[in-house]
Design brief:
The chain is mostly helical. The chain contains 15 helices and 2 strands. Strands 1-2 form a two-stranded antiparallel ribbon.
Length: 278
Amino acid sequence: MAGSKLWNTQLLTSSAVKPFMAVASRDPASDRTSAVNEGLTKADTWVSAENLMRVLSASNSELINRPGVGLSELGATLETFGLLLDELDGVVFDSKFVRQMTMLFGTHGVLDAAKMVNSQDYPQIERTAATVEAAIKSLLQFGGAVRANWPTFVPAFGALVGAGTALNWVLQLAALTIPEAWPTAMKDVPKLPAAEKSALLAEPGKGKLLIKLLAATVLDLASTRQPRHALRTSASSSSGMLHLSSSDDEAVPPKRPRNIKRMRAELQAISDEILGTD
């Protein structure tokens, strides 16, 4: 049901890749199953953002189904990916790709924007409509830049299709920057802010209205997570642990949302397995 949690598509794992790709085939030369090879040789899905957009829906994308949740997960993924770029240079990605992606991250302020929409890892950040809208605008511009250079980025992201994190979220975001694609996909999704949704559907081509709707979903979600964050902090204090005030939260650098060393090892192992390399 649209608007309910999607259990199998939070991250696009090798088992969840099938809705997006043809069924994996065996490579006669190595006798290894390669979903990457099969998927990337099927141009129907990956040849363009428009083709990918035909696959995306509220049944397989949280960015459509529950935009606040989807943007939070997108933010966590982008931050992790940004932190991993140097680590993956020459391991999974070639240096040219790393330079290009690093430039896009810097140009569009992706890491700051990612934290702003990531209410799961950063519930304590002060958010206003203006700051969240600015962050979403930056992410949409980043996605648009990826879409404009689709042939460059799709093969590179294919190297990570086993783990699926970057492929899933970045290419979804890029496809959703197609004019009117996101509003059209969300039109039957319930539990969206009513006023913002009504305004957007009346003028689906207006980017500002899309940003306002998405920002409202982020703020709504963040408002439910802030009390839980305060409760956890209070519980830590009552058990004798150091209590952090709001000023302390600002002073202490936020935790990294993922273990970088472990993530790098997992990405390499899964990439080797899916690609059929030793």
